[in-house]
Amino acid sequence: MREPDPRIVLGLHRSRYERRTLTSALDLGITAVDTSFNYRGFTAHTTLADVTGDLLPHFTLSTKVGFFPAGSQAEHSLDPTRLRAALEQTYQDLRRMPDLVFLHNPERSLTSPAAEARNTLGRACAALTAAVEAGLCGAWGISSWDPRPLSGLVDASLPRPAVLMVRAGLLAGVDVLEASEALATRWGLTPDEVWGMSPFGGNPADPVWGRLDPRIFIEDADDAPSGLQAAFRTAFLLPKVGRIAVGTDSPSHLRELVDALRYEPDAGRLRTYRRLLRQRAERQAP
Question: Which CATH number applies to 8-284: 3.40.50.300, 3.40.50.970, 3.20.20.100, 3.10.150.10?
Answer without folding.
Answer: 3.20.20.100
